[in-house]
Amino acid sequence: MNFSYNSGFKIQNLSLKIEENSIYALTGNNGSGKTTLLRLLVGLLKPESGFIKIFNEPLTRNKKELWEIRQKIGFLFQNPDDQLFAPTIEEDIGFGARNLKLDEKEVKKRVLWALQAVNLIEFKDYSPFNLSWGQKKRAALAGLLVLKPKLLILDEPFANLDFNAIYNHLKIIENLKREENMTILFTTHNLFFVENWAKKMLVLDNGKSLYEGEPKEGLNDTQVLELLGSYDKIREIIKND
């Protein structure tokens, strides 16, 4: 797959395969192409050459087919304020389900389930803008869960969260993967999550794949270490902290 901007930045000869019901990490330095790749995967950008398949279905620009495939994908933005807009959490979470033309009984059932899944049931009548950053992240996630996606794409899901919020997010997402058989793709700069959470990783360097495979091998690869820095030092800090 290839893609380029007018600025000259290119995604070049990129190939990856994400196994169903797995957790896949996407990492690399700022400007490496992570966000561009996510936009390609949800059809916001179109490859100049090559193709993308989501659950063995070609991702086309046909509006009907693109709409159907997007119903299987939940895309969590890095900034939850980009997704939250309704007067209350409950209304915000229900918006996507109502947009699918589901009957109101099913909408309310899904909203209740999503609120419980992210531990926000007691905040359902709150304004999204009166929540903490971590609560906003969970509310934005709940808005995706009502759509029952098969693929959950998380852009820097742990950025700007404290330890307790990160722990809560990890538990929620692990439960979703196990109980709903979701496939999870996440971007991160934090190699701790890559090593301890992902089954596979892709390291991008200026639009090119530097490494794809198991994190254990990748985080000991010479080229990866030169790009991202030695993770042994980070491990030692964590161990002795």
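Above is the first protein from milestone M3; the second protein from the same milestone is given next.
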Amino acid sequence: MHRRLLVVLVPLAVLLVTALGVPLSVTVAEREIQETYVDRLNDVGRFSSLAETALSTGRTEALQQELTRYHELYGIPVAVIDTSGTVLLGPAGAYQEAARDEPALPRIVTAALAGARPEPSGEWAPWDDSALVVAEPVGRDSEVVGAVVTISDLSKTRSRILTRWARLAGLGLLPLIALMAVAWPVSAWVLRPVRELDAASSRISQGDLTIRADAEAGPAELRRLAESFNTMMDAVENAVQRQRAFVSDASHQLRNPLTSLRLAVESLEPHLGADGGGRQVYGVAVDELKAMQRMLNALQASARMESIRTASPVDLDAVLATRVERWRALTETAGQTLTVDVPPGLRLLEPSGGLGSILDELISNALRLSDARVVEVTARIDPANAGDGSAAGGAVTIIVRDDGQGIDPSERTQALRRFWRSPRHQNVPGTGLGLAICADLVGAAGGELRLEDGLPRPDGSGHGFAAVVALPAVPRVPSSSEAPAPA
């Protein structure tokens, strides 16, 4: 989370440094270029005064030597030209070679010969390679007899500008580095309670209501938030515990009087006449008492299973190893056939209460409610969540399907609600809680229980019933004691 905070803070700091650094960099570049231009302007002004005296007296040897020496020292060709553009004094070869690459030279020379001091030429940006052309007229007004022209290579000036920019960039990085060095631990300290709240919320979503947040660390606002969170969880846990305790206690307390009532009703059987209507009423009363006992047993089982809220990884092979033989015995007794097609090595997150109990309930529904001949249990990796065909990061889907009566599509949503029973199964023993409890437990483990079409019926009249359990897959981590199998 603090990484996302830095992603927000660092770009803002970069924008601030850039907003301050760019104008400063432009000022530095302009200053360097301006200093170079003033130096060249002073040089051509001095040479112009010397050239005016030398041309008027005819003594040009000293000026010629000075212009040559200037070129040798600084590498800048400077020439004195007449009104026709012919070089009178200075290194003519170097000047003409440099002049060929400067398209602005004729304009500047023409302005200087007209007696004006022209604007300097060239792009002064460090990434441009044009030269600086500066010209000064020799003479004044109508007595201009020529001009002094310099063509200066700005590569050294641009190198100095880039060096200054590099230093400014380095100085600009210092506050960014300091910001990151300070913001990383500070943001971690500030957001640690938020991370703990997030972890606690994740644990709570998995059913662990005992988790609490640390209300002693972090800023005052987050400490108050953690305290409010803990208070809320105390109230939620107490309410859930009271609810479960009520269901369990009520079921337990009702069981004894209900058992006594059933014994009392059954003790009336010898006193009923063989042909009277009382025996029919007696049978109805006994059936209702048995249904109430099953209901209480289901409520107690629900309270026990929901009190265990921690999901844990489990090997599907280990779960099936303890269940398949019993399922086969039950199906053979009912005259049905059980087939199990589950690939080995699947590991998934087991809901609270146990995956075996959930599969027992699904098999029981297939035996009691569907009138099926074939019950099939299969498992696979859900390709929608594990495209590479591995269980890691995907979902393991377990399907229990049969070729019996099935459930109408319009009733499948209601079948996952508590106490709902299909009109076709009103006379079949059951409470209507099994599928609903299984769906809740699977959902609490991050999975899903849905109902679909099952196997085709033998008479071709449709499809049977299928319960699909999708649970998160857990990657298998080999232990250090596991050695690779020999080839």
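Note on the second protein: The chain has twelve helices and eleven strands.
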